[in-house]
Design goal:
Number of strands of chain A: 23
Strand order of the largest sheet of chain B: 2-1-3-4-5
Strand order of the largest sheet of chain A: 20-12-13-23-22-21
Shape of chain B: globular
Helix content of chain A: 40-55%
Oligomer: heterodimer
Shape of chain A: globular
Number of strands of chain B: 5
Radius of gyration of chain A: 33 Å
Strand content of chain B: 15-25%
């Protein structure tokens, strides 16, 4: 099964679950006092299911949920009455939907024949149609107000009047900045006393920066209750000739109960809440490590007694379960790359039309998963790369035909998982990058000296310098004064990097490598002097010991020989001004890949640790080489190295030295 | 961090008010195909009330059936506010809301499109209302 179908089934199951719960809640109430919000909630669930199944191409299910939505719409608008018969029918159909969705799990068939079901629902709906509450409200309430109500709100208003309730309007003014919060409190106060029928915003007679609201309410409670409870201006719009006080009391008590039941639907979770869970897991991990060390002490003192062996087993289980929990939380944060690709697809379609180039898109690996936060952060950078490929990479049709290529250009988007990273590639079959053209431009822009000797990689790197753009005129598509430098910066800020490969005449490929998640980073803790730092393992290839005698110095820069490769060294002591001399025996963490490999010199290597990176406080922000801070142990904070920035800094120095 | 310069002077600002993220991104995709449009999304009626003073909008596209305030209440608000009353509004809603759409038109909405719609249907209406 494809990832997107799995996603559909999971969401559909959530919706079915919430439909059942809402329906059970409604059924518990006497028919007369059913919470209109709950019925409306059920209607919305069916509406969402219809949209969802339509989007994923499950035709039969779309039709069935559509028909049920119509039935619920009638009920919601009072065109049909809720009865035992209706409950039984709805329950039956939720079971039908459930078995259809279950059927999707093992079959590839997306389409089902729903004609019989549809006929049944339609017939049932016809038989249930009752005379609506057709009384006109004209004359009872101001026309101005009635005009603005939706059909559903009008129905609720009529029902309240029919049931002998008072209709009030509460008027209030809130600040534009926090009106939603304030209204929530006010709404809660109102719902405790009656039914909120409509919330109408207005700017009439309201100062700038504020918003006025008129809230239309149906209730059997006296107006003074509302004045007291809301502290707002309240006016009676309609009141029945006489309301029996005892009955009013009773009805109000029931309506409080009714308003406590809310209709459930899908749960959306703030990503920060997930982060908090991860933090808590981090805390439990720490406790677990404390247990381990106590175990060590005890077993040294008393040997492996049966009780200690049991403790060991329990600790192992705890460890496993924690890892599971951590994995499950991380999974919640993941979304398929398909989400990014669909946005990029739109960009391609839109811009191909604008620049009048025919373009075919190929997508691979859409089911690859990436952290939701990263997906959102990186999309602008990817959009830029895609625009770049359309504008600079793909040739105009006539040029392509002349070169013996297909008239339509090709853009290929490909995603894959590689270890703890996700790689997203954008490739085109265009003209490729001509190094001499780049050098020419860079010289023109004074970015390099005319006689500079550069490797191909260094030439490509020039494109990522601020202010570099090969097109003379600012084009509409990509030449908006924004360069690839920003793409690189963004990738680096997310702990990733960009690479380019290209062949003249054949095309160009941009590869963006990102960590799968930023939430938890496995890191190695290192120590220099009294300072400790965390180095993310994702950027590290190995650690080696380095003796003072093995370090060579050339023009003030130091290197050492790693199996024949000359690797530049960066001393943490110097980078962060840590006092004291470097010990004779040091350790190097080798970070970066290929030509971008350097050794970070620390005094000591400590342990590996899962860390949750947090942004650093303001006074540290902008400090070169620091990506953030992480808490390890009790209130102990450690700085996390921004490896990409350190490599960058070190290699620029080298470039200056050689140019 | 800001990447692409936002909102040059010739760009038309369009506010899409829709609580369903699916429909919202569908509308966005359709409208984005037009030239020189800058899209702002509002996820609810309240969100729309917050977005309105942020920039000068050239068009509002709104759903009817939404939590907090519905599309009609939003239309009524916009059309009665001297600052916003000239912003054209398009209702995008299902055939269920036929009656509500009529009400929307009667309080000042300029056009409506029924879901599901063909891209051209919405694009045509947007283009017509964006003409100076």
């Amino acid at each position: 099964m494809r990832g997107s179908d799995k996603e559909f089934i999971a969401e559909a199951e959530d919706l079915i679950e919430s439909a059942v719960n809402t329906l059970l809640g409604i059924q518990e109430q006497p028919v007369k006092e059913i919470d209109p919000d709950a019925v409306n909630g059920l209607f919305r669930v069916m509406h969402t299911l219809k949209g969802l199944s339509g989007l994923y191409g499950y035709q039969g299910l779309t039709d069935i949920s559509h028909a049920l939505e119509s039935l619920l719409d009638d009920i919601r608008l009072g065109k049909a009455e809720l009865s035992e018969e209706v409950f039984a029918f709805l329950f039956k159909y939720i079971d039908v939907i459930r078995s259809i969705v279950n059927g999707f799990k093992d079959k590839k068939q997306k389409k089902i024949d729903a004609s019989q079901n549809l006929a049944e629902i339609e017939a049932f709906r016809e038989s249930m149609k009752a005379a609506g509450s057709g009384e006109s409200l004209k004359g009872k309430l101001p026309d101005e107000l009635l005009k603005v109500l939706s059909e559903y709100e009008e129905h609720r208003l009529k029902t309240n009047i029919k049931d002998g309730k008072n209709i009030y309007v509460v008027r209030t003014v809130f600040n534009l900045l926090d009106f939603d919060v304030k209204l929530k409190d006010l709404t809660a106060a109102i719902k405790a006393l009656g039914e909120l029928i409509s919330t109408m915003p207005t700017s009439e007679g309201v100062p700038d920066g504020s918003l006025g609201f008129h809230l239309l309410i149906g209730s059997s409670k006296p107006i003074d209750d509302f004045r007291k409870s809301t502290g707002c201006d309240v006016e009676t719009l309609y009141s029945p000739a006489q309301a029996e006080p005892a009955r009013a009391e009773e009805a109000a008590a029931e309506s409080i109960e009714g308003s406590l039941k809310t209709s459930a639907s899908t749960v959306r979770v703030d990503i920060q809440k997930l982060d908090r869970i991860l933090n808590t897991i981090g805390g439990i991990n720490m406790t677990k490590e404390a247990i381990d060390s106590i175990w060590d002490e005890l077993s040294e003192e008393y040997g492996h007694t049966p009780a200690l062996i049991d403790l060991y087993r329990v600790a192992q289980t705890l460890d496993r379960k924690l890892a599971e929990l951590q994995g499950q939380v991380l999974e919640i944060r993941m979304v398929p790359v398909a989400q990014i690709f669909s946005r990029l697809g739109q960009v391609v379609r839109r811009y191909s039309r604008k620049v009048n180039k025919k373009i075919d898109i190929e997508l691979y690996g859409e089911e690859t998963e990436i952290d939701k936060f990263l997906a959102e952060e990186i999309i602008d950078a990817l959009v830029h790369i895609v625009r770049n490929s359309i504008d600079h990479g793909l040739e105009p049709s006539d040029e392509r035909v002349k070169a013996g290529k297909k008239e339509a250009g090709k853009i290929r988007l490909r995603a894959m998982q590689r270890g703890n990273n996700v790689v997203i590639e954008v490739s085109d079959d265009g003209r490729g990058i001509r190094p001499e053209r780049i050098i020419e431009k860079a010289v023109e822009k004074n970015l390099i000296e005319p006689d500079a000797q550069l490797t191909l990689r260094e030439v490509y790197d020039l494109m990522f310098l601020p202010g570099f753009s090969t097109k003379e005129s600012v084009s509409e598509v990509s030449g908006r004064g924004v360069g690839l430098d920003i793409v690189r910066d963004k990738a680096a800020s997310l702990g990733g990097f960009v690479e380019v490969s290209s062949k003249v005449g054949d095309g160009t490929k941009f590869s963006l490598t990102l960590p799968i998640t930023l939430a938890i980073v496995r890191s190695l803790l290192v120590k220099s002097g009294d300072e400790r730092f965390a180095v993310p393992l994702s950027s590290m290839s190995e650690t080696v010991t380095v003796d003072k005698s093995a370090i060579n110095s050339i023009e003030g820069r130091r290197f050492f020989n790693l199996r024949g490769d000359v690797v530049p060294l960066v001393f943490l002591r110097e980078l962060f001004d840590i006092p004291g001399p470097q010990p004779d025996h040091s350790f190097a963490a080798i970070v970066g890949y290929g030509d971008r490999k350097i050794g970070l010199i620390a005094d000591e290597l400590l342990v590996q640790h899962d860390i949750v990176i947090k942004s650093v406080s303001e006074y540290l922000e902008g400090t070169k080489g620091i990506a953030g801070a992480a808490e390890i142990g009790r209130h102990e904070v450690i700085l996390v190295l921004d490896v990409e920035a350190i490599i960058e800094e070190s290699l620029t120095k080298k470039a200056q030295a050689t140019v | 961090m800001i990447y692409l310069p936002r909102n040059p002077i010739y760009m038309k600002n369009i506010l899409i008010v829709e609580d369903s993220s699916m429909t919202r991104s569908m509308i966005r995709a359709v409208v984005e195909e037009l030239d020189d449009v800058e899209i702002v999304e509002a996820v609810s009626g309240f969100d729309a009330l917050k977005q309105l003073p942020q920039r000068e909008f050239n068009l509002i596209i709104t759903d009817i059936n939404m939590p907090d305030i519905n599309g009609l209440e939003l239309i009524n608000f916009v059309k009665k506010d001297a600052r916003y009353k000239d912003i054209p509004m398009i209702i995008v809603s299902t055939e269920k809301s036929e009656e509500d759409k009529k009400r929307g038109m009667s309080i000042g909405a300029n056009a409506y499109v029924t879901k599901p719609f063909k891209p051209e249907q919405l694009q045509e209406k947007v283009n017509a209302l964006l003409k100076p």
